[in-house]
Design brief:
Keywords: DNA-binding, Transcription, Transcription regulation. By secondary structure, this protein is an alpha/beta fold. The protein is 57% helix and 10% strand. α2 crosses α5. The chain starts with 9 loop residues before the first helix and ends with a helix.
């Protein structure tokens, strides 16, 4: 990545990170993931603090900045500060404010306290989903779904909940929907049923299950449209997606919710129902 021109905006930097992520070293990838997940912390954090939070040596931040054409960390940090001044409060900022308001440092773990924490964290995550999901991406996804002969949906382990709901919702609006569930270990065989006139919906969160990746790659090789729901712009599925939705879920004591992903699945399903109703009117 020599002779790289420094990005002029945070949006450009994020795009550059996505394009070059696979070429970065292990430590630079750690910084890349931190940068994409917590931009507001990068905006005002010191190299020492950020290094501790990201689990890397301070010099790694300088090397990361240099890799993307900046003279040093301070020059790169200005992009984050500028973006923060122009945009609404970030997801991380809202979480921090919520912790202060609800006293989450309190050791109280009664069911009532847990419910309050989970419900408020999910409310913040759902608000973030509505504010950051691009209308053009929603429209594009619904157009793809409306033109597809059949929808195939894949998601394993935690993501299976979202995938199975998607299949359920699409069937209830009389759409052909097939859950790629790998019964008997037959993911490859189920993926072979994909046709270029179909659509694959892939739901995958870190650490990004190999089963989902293999089905998604099989779809991409057949030029099957791919709608992805994931948790990071550098998810391995993002680069091959026709439409990619990056969803930030609420997290309490390392327990991650699925409320936002399910809300998105519901919005797409009902949005498709409205679109089909207009076409058939």
């Amino acid at each position: 990545m020599s002779d790289v021109l420094a990005p002029k905006s945070l949006t450009d930097l994020k795009e550059a990170i996505k394009q070059h992520y696979s070429k970065l070293s292990k430590r630079l990838r750690q910084v890349a993931e931190f940068v994409l997940d917590a931009p507001s912390e990068v905006a005002f954090g010191t190299v020492a603090t950020l290094s501790k939070d990201a689990g890397v040596h301070p010099s790694t931040w300088v090397r990361f900045a240099n890799a993307f054409g900046f003279s040093g960390f301070s020059e790169m940090q200005k992009l984050f500060q500028q973006d923060l001044m122009e945009e609404a409060p970030s997801y991380q900022d809202r979480i921090r404010l919520a912790r202060e308001a609800f006293g989450e440092e309190n050791t109280e773990q009664s069911p009532s306290q847990l419910l309050t924490r989970f419900s408020h964290a999910n409310a913040i995550a759902l608000g973030h989903l509505g504010e950051t999901t691009a209308a053009e991406d929603l429209d594009k996804a619904i157009q793809i779904l409306s033109q597809a002969h059949a929808a195939h949906i894949v998601g394993v382990r935690r993501a299976f909940v979202v995938a199975s709901y998607f299949a359920y919702a699409l069937r209830h609006i009389d759409q052909k929907a097939y859950l790629v569930d790998g019964v008997g270990g037959m993911y490859k065989e189920q993926a072979s049923a994909l046709d270029k006139n179909d659509v694959l919906i892939a739901v995958s969160f870190h650490p990004y299950a190999e089963e989902t990746q293999s089905v998604a790659k099989a779809a991409a090789e057949k030029n099957v449209p791919l709608i992805v729901i994931t948790d990071n712009q550098i998810s391995p599925l993002a680069s091959i997606a026709t439409v990619c939705f990056v969803v930030k879920e609420a997290e309490i004591d390392s327990f991650r919710s699925l409320s936002s992903s399910l809300c998105l699945a519901q919005a797409l399903s009902i949005g498709l129902a409205y679109e089909l109703e207009k076409k058939n009117a």
